[in-house]
Input
Amino acid sequence: MVPLNESVMVTSDLFHSSRGNQQFNHYPVKFPTQNICEFLDNFYTDYSEYVDDLDNLPAKGECPIKPCKIDIINKPFPAKAVPPFFPPGLWKAQIKLTMNDVEIA
Output
């Protein structure tokens, strides 16, 4: 485990299944590709109220991010965090971490 710094980039893709039957289509909404430090700062700005009860999250503004383990067990995704223009159905989010264009997580 090593600290994560600005050389680690975060990208995301969303997939939607309108019938909830696991037949996903790529959804054309994108979060911007950003380095891990910007991603974490923006995450806290937009979603901090939903993760206040999680232990061991890196502090806002922490960069590099020191190694840590964060367990999220039986915590449903909050419906209020989903923008109202997203259609109902089953959603899948794919988040990738890359360093020098090589996927690391």
Q: What stands out?
A: Residues 17 and 23 are 5 Å apart (CA to CA). The mean pLDDT is 90.
